Amino acid sequence: MFPVPDLSVVVPCFDEEEALPDLFPRLERLRDLCARRGLHVEVLFVDDGSRDGTRDLLRGFASRGRDRRVLVHARNRGFGAAMRTGFSAARGRVVVCYDADATYPVEDVLSLHDALGDADVAAASPFARGGRAEAPLPRRILSRGTAFLYRLALRVPGPAFTAPTCAFRAYRRPVVDRLRYEADDFLAAAEVLARLVLAGARVREVPSRLAPRRRGRSKMRPFRTALRHLAFLRRLASSPGLRAPVRTGPARARGARAGERGEARGEGRPPRLRPPRDPRAWNRELNRARPMRRIEEHGNPLVRAVEARRRAGVLLRCGSLRGSRVLDVGAEEGLLGRRLAARGARLVALDIDREALLRGGTVATPLRVAGSAEALPFPAGTFPRVVLAEVLEHCPAPETVLAEALRVTVPGGRVVISIPDDIPILALKRAVRFLRLDFLLRGLPPGRAPGHLHVFGRKDLRRLVGGTGAGGALVRDRAALAWFAVLRPGEGGG
After folding, report:
1. What does the pLDDT look like over 151-164, one tens digit per residue?
2. Is 130 exposed, middle or buried (CB count within 10 Å of its CB: 0-12, 13-18, 19+)?
3. In 3-state terms, what secondary structure has residue 171?
4. Are residues 180 and 245 in contact, defined by beta-carbon separation less than 8 angstroms?
5. What is the tens place of the pLDDT at every residue in 260-274?
6. For the chain, what is the domain count?
């Protein structure tokens, strides 16, 4: 298992194929500088749905060292969403967000690290005394103007708040764990800092040099971003609720109910649900409110039979387990783990909810690990079997979870996946409600199951599984109301 890094550097990337050749040597230099000081650094790239060769370049660079990882968004979700994905996967005691265009000196990563001292956040600023800004005029005007407005809104002195739009910052681990923000675009940098200031965080600015971008083009649109800042500043001035933590959980966007009706008709298009801002707290609340044993002990024998068939389908696809190390991702209280252990598996149970793992202490599991499926805390090639049973639909970035599962699986091993077939499930629930037979559900939610951030149709799953490049087959089990797949690392897709 990797040691906890001293420093995690998160680099959001979107269509940066031209800029990456400049970035990679700088990150190698940062690694050397950290090594001289005895600091262990990890680098996490977040490919935010790039359409050029960015992803291939990132994976090529990451393959040269085990302290580098690539997290993937299937589509472009925005700078703030990429930053959120990177922060949730980072394991370092200090987490730094660094721009892919390398317009700030990479040596300043260590300057920010050193400047934390008794502060919670160290923020780079080309406008602080001793800094220098060589950016295009529209970007400088936007930065100066928004800094002035944020100082007025937050009532903080100028010298302490000169670059709220700059995302190049270092955060202490406890700050990252508590961080909540809503914006998925470039507004995120300012929103994060504003919320931290309102929450009483100690912020220290560090002078830095902002150089012009040498390659590629900026993805920020100054006019659109300025309007976003003005809208947020208006909320900041008029909404005391902004001082409270953001509500966690998958909030329904407008039109979600219409989307759910579309699923029931078989259209297969998932409603747009926001990913949870705090996955750990969200999962903990979900497991408390609706533990999996509620399904296993359901009063309707048909529901119990469907769940039993799903577990049997997973066990069948695992093959022989006698003496094999098996990683059960999303283990919760160990309902599936008991069956894996009974078949002779040397089980490792992982879940983001530590309390659920402890409640499952009766499972014959020598090792229980609290961690995220999007950043598995194991070296590459650790397990012959990795089980993702009803996990991917709960994860904001299922592509990243699959990539991590394949990474920790030995070549030729198996990644066994099961995913609820939610489209016919929703249709059945609608039929039950239409016939006024709601008593058959006996406490099950009438619509989408709680915590399902995605509803996967056949095309979605083919794209998801096929994008891994691993050999494997996708099978629909109508009796289990589920999809199954077995991926084999090291084998070409078919």
Report:
1. 877 776 655 678 99
2. exposed
3. strand
4. yes
5. 334 333 333 444 455
6. 2
